[in-house]
Amino acid sequence: MAEKISVTCCDTYEYRQLRAAVESLLEPLGGIGAFVVPGERVLLKPNMLAAKPPDAAVTTHPAMVRVVSDLVRDAGCLVFIGDSPGIGGFHRVAERSGIRQAAIDSKATLLPFDDVVEVRGEGKFRSLEVARAYWEADKIINLPKLKTHEMMTLTCAVKNLFGAVVGAAKPAWHLKAGTSRELFARLLLEIYLLKKPTLNIVDAVLAMEGNGPGSGDPTSMGLLIAGADAVAVDMVAARFAGVPAELLPVELEASSMGLPGSCLEGVEIIGVQPADFKRPPFKLPAGMDVQFGLPRFLKKGLRRHLMAHPYAIKDLCVLCGICREACPPGVITIENSALSIDNGRCIHCWCCRELCPHDAMGVRKGRLLKVAEVLGKARRKR
């Protein structure tokens, strides 16, 4: 049976209009009552990457959090809002992003992810630690922001659940699995499969393109996307963003695992159709390389020349050390009032660019990558 994904237009975060749009979005799926039961403890999992204002499109918009919180509370449930931010303390991020006020307005409880529980997996990763609040919730409603991502191309429903990994464990997992997009995608999917959200609602009213997920450009998209299957939701979101499936590591890995929703042929899109949605494809991150589809021996032999590398922009870098602390392999150093990166040991997870609060990490492209881009542009002009 086809997985149903609902899509509707919405170009505002004004409360009444947004609530009406979310209710319309959920109606073909059975409404909020199809996903929660009165008396349940329901955890809302927004994207709370960093302490940025709503119009930066870095975090899930607080109006979206408030609307869904109100709907769940009106359904007779206890509502909690939780995450483990990539940078900064939970309460600071909640305050700056507007999510704290959304929780107050909707009478929800903010729940920082700090305590952990070890869960036995059944895939490549036999043991995973996730936030206890995430694991013990009766239901989870996933509220991702649609953004580009320099390692995973896009971050949406599946990638948003990496927030269930607490604090310092994130860099450790980047170091263990981040040396390959395929392996990191597998990690994300196995976290998702540990405890699937009952519902995923994508905030794409204002999305992010370019150098996401933390330093990209806000772009008005005017869409809401919802469904029970996070993989299918991501596939549909990518279609609307104009990003081809071959550039999506999570979706490629989901397909190799035979997961439902990893092929659009098995998905029924209800409401707005991709063919009727006219907008330019998302600008993709500068840090992406051209290794997709290359034979393994070429990836290894030409890796240095096919990849892009991070570097510190001297005029913007204030030597705060956040990138150094966040770097999984520890290849960033600060000496003699200068920041340097050992590109030979860099695993290209782009955590430094993702978490830099000053947009001070630039991208230096390998020689063959520059040639490939020129040839690609020439081919598209034909």
- The geometry reads as globular
Annotated CATH architecture of the largest domain? 3-Layer(aba) Sandwich
**Which band does the percent of strand residues land in?**
15-25%
CATH superfamily of the largest domain: LarA, N-terminal domain
Output the number of helix runs: 14
Taking the sheet with the most strands, its summary is: 10 strands, mixed
Rounded mean pLDDT score? 90
The CATH topology of the largest domain is given as Rossmann fold
Structure summary, number of beta strands: 16
C-alpha end-to-end distance: 41 Å
What structural class is derived from the secondary structure elements?
A: alpha/beta
Tell me, what is the CATH class of the largest domain? Alpha Beta
Gyration radius from CA atoms, angstroms: 20 Å
Low-confidence stretches: 290-302, 372-380
The percent of residues in helical segments reads 25-40%
Number of domains: 2
Order of helices and strands: EHEHEHHEEEHEEEHHHEEHHEHEHEEHEH
